[in-house]
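Q: Can I borrow your eye for a moment on a structure tokenisation matter? Would you mind producing a protein record, from residues through to fold? Write it directly below this note and I will take it from there.
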Amino acid sequence: MSYMGMRGMGMLPVVLAAVASTVSASPADGIQPLSKIAIHKATVNLRGSAYVRATPALLGDQDELEDTVWITVKFGSENPSTDDWIAVFSPADFISGSCPNPSRYPGEPLLCTAPIKYQYANYSANYLDWGKGTIRFQLINQRSDFSFALFSGGLENPTLVAVSKQVAFKNPKAPVFPRLAQGKTHDEMTVTWTSGYDITCAVRTHGAVACEPARTVGWRDPGFIHTAFMRDLWPNKEYFYKIGHELLNGTVVWGKSYTFKAPPTPGQNSLQRIIVFGDMGKAERDGSNEFSNYQPGSLNTTDTLIKDLDNYDMVFHIGDMPYANGYLSQWDQFTAQVAPISAKKPYMIASGNHERDWPNTGGFFDVKDSGGECGVPAETMYYYPAENRANFWYKVDYGLFRFCVADSEHDWREGTLQYKFIEECLSTVDRKHQPWLIFTAHRVLGYSSNSWYADQGSFEEPEGRESLQRLWQRYRVDIAYFGHVHNYERTCPLYQSQCVNNEQSHYSGTMNGTIFVVAGGGGSHLSDYTTAIPKWSVFRDQDYGFTKLTAFNHSSLLFEYKKSSDGKVYDSFTIHRDYRDVLSCVHDSCFPTTLAT
């Protein structure tokens, strides 16, 4: 059985049984570092003169709750080369056994699983001169043991020459890396976590991913995913909680303790602060894989948000999370990286092309950006309050805000189920009590002066805004957020490609249009702009960063764009208005009237 202990500040501890969750490219994209390894071509030639030794052998010996450790790896070879590299494998026994899909190759390869990370041996000073070196790796608890391997021949023609003895966490099955998310109602918080305990209230992703590499060299057992629901929470109250499992002998294995603040009630007049960004990716603190420059800004964004943890209430990561691209071990790495945030703040997600897209799987884009994942890891490892979890769109009511989260990887055009959801989400909010209406999606369904959109002459995804702009205008959406393009850009209040307000930083009264924001600079390699700046583009920044919304009350909203490098504000605007300004009639927002008296 899974358990989650929870108590409010000053309240007695309460233990709640967990409820199982029944979960079901851009042209400039880089290359997933693990995909560069031709592991299916690897040969084995273990040499007595080569060695790999890792210490300590038992991880987390002093603290059973420790889920992240540093380990020292010493290695040597009598024939050192610039092509030598050290790989981390988990499980430790990666040589024996059969491959998940041997028919993929002419014959079953000797090695059929990719490592979880790697570094070149000459990362250690003097390795090429002395034939021996030392590298430190950071490991996280991933439900199995680890071994370290020395390869020669580079990534294209790898030859295994030495393997270390196994190392393991004291409890590799421990519950780790909780992910909070707001539930379907304002008084519900969910927490999802990963463990190695095989119990009935767990969800597994095995067999659900579609194609290679997710089914072949990228496959790794994802463990068991658990979701617990904390209901009837008191608004803005701080709660303590911890996750755990009751074993068959009656003992309970607990994870770490955390706190969170319950959401405000819809319309509650209090200070509310929301972080929004996309396309962050993951990175390795030990430097592994980083020579590829795959997601160079990821750790900066993560660390800046961790440092500022007390100054915001919720996070929206609007697609393209770890860029695992079919290498499933990277999802564990990502959940560990953001755990200091997601364990304390609701971490809401949207579906991106690198989570969902694969040909002939029902998506809108017939591309291979997900590496065969088809959305399964994202939909399983993170909770989102959709009415039907097969449809990755949902709404969130958080105090003075309503967020309508769309799925740009499925058809959004008029006449579809998603279009119906979007209109219902936008039209049913009570703007007297929740004045700030926000739309989000991963791909740019609005406006971006990104270079490849400009080359197409559309400044948007094909058919991006054609069906939606009348909805945004009719229901007076304040801000529409997008990722996918790896930079920052803000427009003037727009409708039908025309600025409807000449102001740029202090908006007041009737808005007349929607402000469009691209916030895709979370950490992945940056995207270029077109050289000609469109008239509607107010501010552009080709750097890593995130945005922050602060609602002071029903009448005042502050928008800020911050760089990840220093956390300082580089762009901002304010909106001041009353309820009557939302009701004011603007172009294409007026409902029919009659001359009858």
Notes: The first strand starts at residue 2 and ends at 8. Residues 88 and 117 are 6 Å apart (CA to CA).
